[in-house]
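Priority: low. Protein: Bacterial membrane flanked domain protein. Input follows.
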Amino acid sequence: MTGDDAAAAPGTRPDGQLPAPGADAEETWHRVHPVSPLVRGWIALVAILYFAGRERAEAFFEHGDLGLDDFPLLQVLLALAGVLLIIAVAFYLSWRFTRYQLTREHVRVHSGVVFRQQRQARLDRVQAIDVIQPLLARVFGLAELRFEVADSGESAVRLAYLKLDDAQKLRAAILARASGAAAGTDADTEEAPELPVVALRPGRVIASTLLSGTTVFLVIFGLGGTAILGFATREPLSLAVLVPILAGTVGSYWSQFSSGFNFRAAASPDGLRIRSGLLDTRAQTVPPGRIQAISIVQPMLWRFPGWYRITVNVAGYSGGDADGRTRLLPAGTRDEVFRVLALALPDPGTAEPIEVFSAGMDGSGDAWGYTTTPRRGRWLAPLAWRRNGYAATGTALLARSGRLRRQLDIVPHARTQSMALHQGPLNRRFALADLRLHSTAGPVSPRILQLDAGTARALFVEQAGRAREARRRDRTERWREAEARTSGPAPADRHQPAPEELPDEHR
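Result:
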């Protein structure tokens, strides 16, 4: 190794190899896998080859030759070799200038050749860690590690690509140090054990996809709309109208199916683990206390099989849910919903959680502590006025809504970001108000609809006090620190019992 190399990668061994990710010192830097630039840039490489060879391919199919008669063979080979050399140099420089470092308090990543980028994320801000394997990366046995932190519009750290074993070890090391379980930075960290909780069969994923809102849109607005248009114009339906609708529908079906395929949820001392994916696979780990809001939804077509979907807000998971990473359960039975809830909200804050949460999922009226829209609100919500309402437990605020599409939103008191009272002209006319609870960016937007105005104002003050007290008592920042001080890492069943061993209120 030259002097320049040593300066560029401090902490490397004399033989030029980098130590394993779990055994680094404070100043040790590591590099991603040498094949990473190819896995990241294969689309650009294919595009270059396409545009470079399209004209020759057309000449071959039209005239039976490649149109190279005007160019000596040596020139063609030299040009091709020059292009490949440029691509190889670009890939090498991209790999050479990408390094990462794990310390006691931070993860650092340096990248870029012309435009240099240096990113640093604090371990105590970790919200979730994903290990992702796109299809081509799986061929090479590689994986991308994404490290999410609070207040980040995108992944704070993205390491693409590492060997799958190295990515898993690095994830374990980050979680161990973020949780307080690791006493130092020089010990190799093994992945924490886990216990399976839920696994979905492909048949249910397919059925739930076909019974989704995409099918309703296709039938009502797609086929129905084009049929009405054809009847009104007395012209045969044009494929130009149907093709975009069908293409969008197929894309939506594929996204839902591929992201929910092979879905598995497990309990671990490091938090909730979720694996899913058909071509591109994802393994998520969400540490305890990082879930900001939970939504349990039952679309109208899912009532017959009795399925529910659970989505969450996690700081760092911004944007939509196209890749399914905010879904804790794509389509689960009532029993599976309670299993996942026991992991997402370990302390329900009530002695009768099954009854309270069941009333929120499909109940109505004021049973089990729910406060609903007063009778005068039936003019604004004739179907849902007895269902719209809220209930407060010792640890969370529950907001239910919807008669056809049932929804229960759960916001832990400690995760209440802010609140707002809304009162439009119709609500003022009937002395009603909506309370909106602001959460981090995500698919869950909790709100309590059409409460009595006085009740809404009282809830606003009460919830502010509950949130303040819950944040004061919150101890999830270093969730395994006490364990590390006493007897070291405990077996998985000490932290998360198997589903059949859970107490009745958590099953």
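Residues 290-506 form one domain. Confidence is low (pLDDT under 50) at residues 1-25, 488-507.
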